[in-house]
Design brief:
heterodimer, A: 602 residues, alpha+beta, Beta-Lactamase, Helix Hairpins, 4 domains, 5-stranded antiparallel sheet, 20% strand, B: alpha/beta, 6 helices, 5 strands, 43% helix, 19% strand, globular
Chain lengths: 602, 139
């Protein structure tokens, strides 16, 4: 069918109008969503080209299922949904839209349609638009042009929309990530801040505790210094020794010097070194507690007195550990010594004013008649030896000898009465037990004199009938004598042995052995004489009274010199009942009787 | 006529000594006088005649050393043998230092006394006073 020029101009003009309308479409959908673009495109094409339907399939850029949208002429009777159209198109044109021809004849339902396909995007990557018309000559050249231009415009719009949506998505995602990261950071920041606060608190607490510890350490050090107490620990198995600062000060060692037993030994007083050896022995045997009083001899020659106390604590794998304290008791010791000195001076004064006066007067009173006796007897002998013998003079001097002898005897009787006091109070006595009581009384004094007492007391000693108090006076006297005899001994331990044992079947014996100055062998006969003494402060009464007490118990008190240094005093008394005392005045009475005899014979 | 025997004076508060010593001294060949106190001796006429004084240390009132000092003041330097019943070893050197010839502890033997008296009478007197007195008693 041919067109007239007027018809052709009108058609071309209409086409031109449509093209302008299509070119204006992007302004409608600018910034819009793909759905809006698609809808606008479909509505425009349907209206311009009087189509039966127009169909768009949009590929999902992420490979998901494609979106299909369609518009159809309202006059079209069969109203299949887009999905149905898509399936029908697939069935007619094949499954791959890229391979669909630009135009074709399809049948959908019972109707046949001419379709024109326009690819969206240069290679149809966005999708495809299919316009359908019942006309067989569809599409004309102008219709084709309009479809292509519209498809092109839509493709560009969709591309932009996609880009935009992608940008939005990315921006959204970015925002989301930033927000998430921000949240995370905020959270981390919060935790960090909490951690910082906690750490600061911990540090503060630590600092506080350190300060506290420092303070208590300083306090301890100060306390140790004040009390002159040092502390130590000693792991016996390897002799690992740890000292407190104060102990270094007491021993006057450089602080931090490694402490060994050998190093300690260099400071111990030579006379007390045996204690260190003994302590180590005891510790190696696992003794529970250690307690020693010993001296230090400092390089400047001064002497310190120390008191050591240690307690054993069992260590699981490393054997015994002793922890303990060492106190410098030098000052206390000096105070004690001063006290003892004062006390003994006081005692000395008391003795001088009582016993001293007594002794002096007794000695004086005994010596005076003795001087008379000796002089008279000498004179008497000379008178009798003269040629001729002076009988009358001799008789007179002998008479005076008798009188002086009796006078001396009276003095001795007074002396005996004085020391005799009351009669013996006899009871059943365990010699070991009463010895223990005396030891308990004198232990402090012996320790002060640095006497090492070694008691060997028989626990199964038979009882004796004796005066408990008087026997204890004898034991006390022997212990004091032994201690005094060792008072100036240096260079060897002041050992004192006190021993009780059975002596035959019917006697018990007590022995006191010292390592003191002893006595001269020729002195042995004089030891027990009244007023004989080897001690500067002594009065020479103790041993004579002791002997008289033992003799009143029908026992014997004797002295021997040791093979080594010192002397041994010992008495033995019968277990049977004590009888009356021997009269110490009897000897002098006998002397007087001898003189009588001389007088009678003259 | 005076005895040519040397006079030994004994000053002691103890009666036993005063009774026994003169007989022994006479046995030794001396003349003897006894006094119960230092004052009694000083008041007697024997001070200038005594060649040796046997003097007790401890006496009530004037002690032996007190008398020794008094005699020194009076320039009557008589050799002195102290006797004492106090057996104090410290006292002897002190007394000897102060010019005593000897110090004997009671009871003393007759020989110890004789030795002390001999020592006293052999003292080499350096002062004129002593020589004169020595000479007087010898006459």
């Amino acid at each position: 069918m041919l067109e007239t020029p007027t018809e052709e101009v009108a058609r071309l003009r209409g086409c031109l109008n449509d093209l302008v309308g299509i070119m204006a479409l992007p302004a409608l959908w600018a910034g819009g969503e793909p759905q809006q673009i698609t809808s606008t495109l479909l509505d425009a094409l349907l209206g311009m080209l009087q189509l039966a339907f127009v169909f768009v399939r949009l590929n999902d850029p992420d490979g998901g299922p494609s979106i299909e949208v369609m518009r159809r002429n309202e006059l079209l009777e069969s109203a299949d949904p887009a999905r149905g159209f898509g399936i029908a198109l697939n069935a007619s044109l094949g499954k791959a839209p890229l391979k669909w021809p630009t135009s074709a004849r399809v049948s959908i339902g019972n109707a046949g349609f001419s379709v024109a396909c326009g690819r969206l995007g240069a290679h149809g990557e966005i999708g495809i638009v299919v316009a359908g018309c019942e006309r067989l000559d569809f599409p004309q050249k102008t219709e084709r042009l309009l479809i292509d231009v519209a498809a092109n415009q839509a493709a560009m719009g969709l591309q932009q929309a996609r880009l935009l949506s992608e940008q939005k998505r990315v921006a959204r995602e970015l925002d989301q990530r930033v927000a998430q990261r921000t949240t995370e950071l905020a959270k981390a920041n919060g935790e960090l801040r909490k951690e910082i606060i906690e750490r600061r608190l911990t540090e503060e607490k630590l600092r506080h505790e350190e300060a506290e510890l420092e303070r208590s350490e300083a306090f301890l050090a100060e306390a140790q210094q004040l009390a002159r107490i040092g502390s130590f620990s000693w792991r016996v198995v390897n002799d690992e020794i740890t000292w407190s600062e104060q102990l270094y000060r007491i021993f006057e060692f450089e602080p931090g010097l490694r402490i060994t037993l050998e190093r300690i030994a260099t400071r111990i007083h030579p006379d007390d070194l045996h204690m260190l050896g003994e302590m180590v022995d005891r510790a190696r045997r696992g003794a529970g507690d250690l307690q020693y009083e010993h001296r230090l001899l400092m390089p400047d020659g001064s002497v310190k007195y120390l008191h050591l106390l240690a307690h054993r604590t069992r260590d699981n794998d490393a054997g015994s550990v002793y922890t303990g304290a060492v106190q410098d008791v030098t000052q206390r010791r000096h105070a004690e010594e001063a006290l003892v000195q004062a006390r003994s001076e006081l005692a000395q004064v008391a003795r001088v004013t009582s016993l001293g006066v007594l002794t002096a007067s007794i000695a004086h009173e005994v010596s005076q008649p003795l001087a008379g006796i000796v002089t008279n007897a000498s004179t008497c002998a000379r008178m009798l030896a003269a040629e001729p013998p002076n009988i009358e003079g001799a008789r007179e001097t002998a008479r005076r000898t008798i009188r002086d002898g009796n006078r001396a005897s009276e003095v001795i009787t007074r002396l005996r009465d004085l020391f005799k006091g009351k009669d013996l109070i006899v009871e059943s006595v365990d010699l070991s037990e009463i010895t223990r009581e005396v030891i308990a009384l004198t232990l402090g004094e012996l320790q002060r004199n640095r006497v090492i007492l070694r008691p060997e007391l028989d626990d199964k000693l038979p009882a004796v009938l004796a005066d408990r108090v008087q026997l204890q006076q004898v034991i006390l006297n022997l212990l004091r004598n032994a201690s005094d005899a060792m008072a100036n001994i240096e260079g060897r331990p002041r050992e004192l042995l006190i021993k009780t044992e059975p002596d035959g079947d019917e006697h018990v014996r007590l022995t006191v052995k010292d390592v003191g100055v002893g006595f001269a062998p020729q002195e042995i006969d004089k030891l027990f004489e009244a007023f004989h003494t080897t001690k500067k402060e002594g009065m020479g009464i103790g041993l004579s009274v002791s002997r008289s007490i033992i003799e009143r118990h029908h026992g014997r008190l004797s002295a021997t010199l040791n093979d080594g240094p010192g002397a041994t005093f010992s008495f033995s008394i019968p277990c049977g009942p004590a009888r009356d005392a021997v009269d110490p005045g009897a000897i002098l009475t006998a002397a007087a009787m001898d003189a009588h005899h001389v007088v009678r014979n003259l | 006529m005076m005895s040519q025997r040397s006079l030994v004076s004994v000053v002691d508060d103890d009666e036993s000594v005063r009774e026994s010593l003169p007989d022994l001294l006479k046995e030794f060949g001396f003349d003897a006088r006894t006094f119960s106190s230092g004052q009694e001796f000083l008041n007697s006429d024997c001070v200038g005649k005594t060649q040796c004084l046997i003097l007790d240390v401890a006496m009530p009132g004037m002690s032996g050393p007190d008398l020794q000092r008094e005699l020194k003041i009076r320039r009557q330097e008589i050799p002195i043998v102290f006797i004492t019943a106090h057996r104090d070893e410290n006292i002897r050197p002190r007394l000897l230092e102060q010019g005593a010839v000897e110090c004997l502890f009671k009871p003393f033997s007759d020989t110890a006394l004789l030795e002390a008296l001999n020592a006293a009478l052999q003292v080499n007197w350096t002062t004129g006073v002593s020589r004169r007195r020595w000479g007087n008693t010898i006459e």
